[in-house]
Amino acid sequence: MQHLKSLFLICASAASLQMSVMAAPNYNDPGLTPEPGKALSNGTSPRMEYNFNREWKFQMGDITGAQATAFDDSQWRGIHLPHSFSMPYFLSERFYVGFGWYRKTLNAPADWNGKRVMLDFDGAFQEIQVFVNGELAGTHLGGYTGFRFDITKLVKPGQKNVIALRVNNLWRPTLAPRGGEHTFSGGVYRDVHIRVMNPVHVDWYGTFVTTPVISKEAATISVKTDVVNDSEKDVTASLKTLIYAPNGKELTSVSTTMKIDAGKTITFDQTAPEIKNPELWTPKTPSLYTAVSELTINGKVADTYNTTFGCRWVKWDKDTGFYLNGERLYLRGANVHQDRAGWGDAATDAAFARDVQYMKDIGFEIIRGSHYPHDQGFVQACDKLGMFFWSENCFWGTGGFSGDGYWGGAPAYPVQTSQRQEFEQSVRNSLRDMIRIHRNSPSILCWSMCNEVFFTRNQELGEVRRFLKELVAYTHELDPSRLAAVGGVQRGQIDKTGDIAGYNGDGARLREYLNPGIPNIVSEYGSTISERPGDFIPGFGGDGIQGKRVYEWRSGEILWCGIDHGSVGGRYGWMGTMDYHRLPKRLWYWYRENYAGVKHPEWPTAGEAYEVKLTADKNEIKYADGTDDVQLFATIVDKNGKALSNSPDVTIRIVSGPGELPTGSSITFQNKGSDIKIIEGKCSIDMRAYYAGETVVEATSPGLKSNRITIKSSNAPAYKGKEQNLKDLPYVRYTTDHSKVRDTTNDDQGIFRPTYVSSTSGDYSPAYAVDQNPATYWMPASTDKTPWFTVTPERFTPANRLEIDLTKAVPYYLLESSMDNKEWSKVSEYSGNAVKEIRFNSNTPATGLFFRISFKESTGISRFSVYVNSK
To answer: What is the DSSP string of 106-128?
Structure first.
């Protein structure tokens, strides 16, 4: 473990971008679009790359025989990728769980003969079977990392081929994540590509760039490249790796020749001559280099492959915090999920870049990828824009154990011994692929094993600690250049299982004043529930956060959360600095003013509305293939163009052209009675296009002047008319409750949940009141004569039974519930003979997100339990 004490000298590199020099793109076939890009090396690459997002057919349900080439899909719905089962989606806590089928015709060019044909997915949730011409190409399990199928033997060059995908998002006890408070919608929700290459080629994400020696004066670049020989003959191949500066100038190169046996993969291990005065990657100067891998056989180019990377080094210190390039930096940032209004999890790369920029605009330097591997487009945006990224695996837990069957309450780790080996392998697979895909990104600060996996039965916590240590060791094998973090470690004695401890919520307070003796960060604080506009506050939330370095040993603090998101806990997803439509709350403006030095605007007020002003973040969708989009904004203004808080119903519609909204050709925002809202005079939605042309968009509101704008879309087949537009898909809130498969009777929703207290005496932590151990307890300070204790189940809970065990009997208590930890409603008040065991039972539940008990004299609490549907 000596390496844990070193500086971890690395030259981290950005996600491998395969950019080939090709002829001018031919967009005649709308289903197979060449992906534009340039290689910096000389010559032409034989590698061909295609975006495969456009023109699919989709049908919800499990359809018998849908893999067959001759199957009639004429009545299926036309869609484009990325796509989610839940589209259009607007923050419902419920979502469809089941199967969906996708079909598409592939016109494979004849010149694919003799090539390897790869079908690459950036992600699908969470089990997918891929069929080519009726034959099974393979199955992939896991919803958050990319994967590849070699379909060479199944595809027919020069003919029409049928690709069919059978996808489901069924909860599985042996597949991570078992628990979590996000939503888990199914679908092929990330991009799909076809990559065609010679039998001898660079493998899938096959480069790994580091710098064994780096300083401000010089950097030595090491590149490990996996090369595959899928031919039937042994070959002797030469690999030349060229290093290019951020300005495109060639700096240095290194060449190696090796024999590759037929059917084998070997690794070229190269070290290039050092470069002088490297341009160091930082959040303020996100300089990116490029390594070009040029593979030749008998003097002929067999493959080229580009990797962007950035030069920097970091140090985590248990006593003095975090250092970047030798200088101490206190990290401040936010947790960010991937989903967004209307489109759900099916986001574009451009949308990811906007999210990163929104967080950067308010002075943040780090995003925690809560709580699963994020799309490579998200990480690449962090690389380019200068945002550190905490990359987290999908080993995830949530409280209120409700038994197996659904994500909202299953223990993070399997209860059944027979399920553990397969489950652990699924966690390892996701971790392995996350690291391979993102290991070259300078924004990746560390690899996080999990989030809050102490939400596991006490009987299995020992196994969880053992497994976490194994994952940390596995991470060191896969990437020796970065530390392994463990996220959400405030319970269960798991904070010492990794290299870095991330304390969530009240974990910051539990560790207050105490150096944990390990590099650490507050990985969640705040949790301020609000609907836009909210209050002009930081939302520190009483979690021991003050917005600045308070303790020398703390490396930083990460807000929960950056942007509202879908949640099985409903309103529990409304804790962002921005709402689901990516419109800022007052909270966002507080951070921008206090962290970035930009004063907040004048808040809109009511006035005489005159017009609906329609704008967009840009006027062109440069790549109309599902990777790019625009954000549309509609604002109520007066005659002088001043924004008002008036909020009449507003409709945004496509007048003409290839533009596409998540609901089809139009979407209406309502002031009341709808999940699609206009608030404080403003609303927003993202628009895509999958064909080249001009889209005219209009915003209207009864009695007000309407407004139109034109958005151009490019690099795609030409738009031919309305017959290419998809059918409208009106929004209907999903209401089926799939969580009913569980019996939640007598499940304690308070176990291991965050707590808030009036005071604490010494080591008698409030965590002891919710740890399932009757021998441990919380005590208030001796000077606290009116103590109170609050627990939050972290979701809106209809509690009809509360049980509190005290360390000393008291003659008075007051039980209350709250939706926001501010306004409280009385549940029960008692005054009489002293009692030590408090029991509240009622057929009429006390609904709340927070539950509090208050006293008029000092006493401790050994158990605070919250029950739902109790008998």
So the answer is: EE--GGGTTSEEEEEES--BSEE
Token pair for residue 833?
A: 């003979």
State the Cα–Cα distance between residues 281 and 310, nearest whole angstrom. Answer: 5
Task: Give the tens place of pLDDT for each residue, 499-509.
Answer: 999 999 876 66
* Per-residue b or e along 651-677, where b marks 16 or more CB atoms closer than 10 Å to that residue's CB: bbbbebbbbbbbbbbbbbbbeeeeebb
One-letter amino acid identity for 385? Answer: L
| Most distant pair of Cα atoms in the chain: their distance | 94
Whether the CB-CB separation of 227 and 251 falls below 8 Å is answered with no
Q: Give residues with Cβ within 8 angstroms of 365, minimum separation 6.
A: 283, 329, 331, 332, 333, 387, 388
Residue 237 has pLDDT above 80, yes or no: yes
Q: In the predicted model, is pLDDT for residue 240 greater than 60?
A: yes
Q: Per 3-state DSSP, what percentage of the chain is helix, strand, and coil (rounded to 5)?
A: 10, 40, 50
Q: For position 822, what pLDDT does the model report?
A: 84
419 burial (CB, 10 Å; 0-12 / 13-18 / 19+) is middle
Q: Is 253 exposed, middle or buried (0-12, 13-18, 19+ CB in 10 A)?
A: middle
Q: What is the identity of the amino acid at 74?
A: S
pLDDT digits (tens, 9 = 90+) for 809-835: 999 999 999 988 888 999 999 999 999
Using CA of residue 547, residue 393, residue 192, residue 174, what is the dihedral sign? negative
| Model pLDDT, residue 401 | 64
The dihedral region occupied by 99, where left means phi > 0, alpha psi between -120 and 50, and beta the remainder, is beta
- In sequence order, what are the residues at sequence separation of 6 or more whose Cβ sits closer than 8 angstroms to the Cβ of residue 1? none
Average the pLDDT over each of 212-216, 475-479, 738-742 and give the range with the smallest value.
738-742
Check whether 40 has a pLDDT greater than 70.
no
Q: What is the pLDDT of residue 568?
A: 87
Instruction: Look up tokens 């397969």; give the residue.
Output: 422
Question: Look-up: residue for tokens 């899909």?
Answer: 73
Residue 636, H or E segment: strand 630-637
Quickly tell me which residue has 């609907």 as its tokens. 531
Question: Can you say how many angstroms the Cα of residue 236 is from the centroid of all Cα atoms in its chain?
Answer: 42
At residue 27 the predicted structure's pLDDT band, cuts being 50, 70 and 90, is low
Decide: helix, strand or coil at residue 472: helix
Looking at residue 312, its amino acid is: R
Q: Which two tokens stand for residue 338?
A: 């991937």
Q: Evaluate the CA torsion angle 197, 200, 205, 209 in order and state its sign.
A: negative
Per-residue tokens: 398: 């949530």
Q: In whole angstroms, what is the distance from residue 188 CA to residue 590 CA?
A: 37
Map tokens 């800022």 to a residue: 584
Mean pLDDT of 742-759: 73
- Token readout for 180 is 């979590």
Could you write out the three-class secondary structure of 291-304?
EEEEEEECCEEEEE
* Dist. CA 464–CA 788, nearest whole Å: 33
Which pTM does this prediction carry?
Answer: 0.90
Task: Give the pLDDT score at 201.
Answer: 98
Q: Return the H-helix or E-strand segment holding 484.
A: strand 484-487
For residue 805, the tally of other CB atoms under 10 A from its CB is: 17
pLDDT value for 547: 67
Spatial contact of 66 and 30, defined as CB atoms under 8 Å apart: no
**Contact by Cβ (8 Å): 446, 469:** no
Task: Identify the burial level of 153 via C-beta atoms within 10 angstroms of its C-beta, where 0-12 means exposed, 13-18 middle and 19 or more buried.
Answer: exposed
Is 646:682 a contact under the CB 8 Å cutoff? no
Within 735-796, strands assigned E span 755-757, 788-791
427-485 tens-digit pLDDT: 999 999 999 999 999 999 999 999 999 989 889 999 999 999 999 999 999 999 999 99
Reply yes or no: is the peptide bond before residue 177 cis, omega within 30 of 0: yes
Cα separation, 116 vs 94, whole angstroms: 42
Residue 211: closest CA among 153, 249, 252, 158: 252
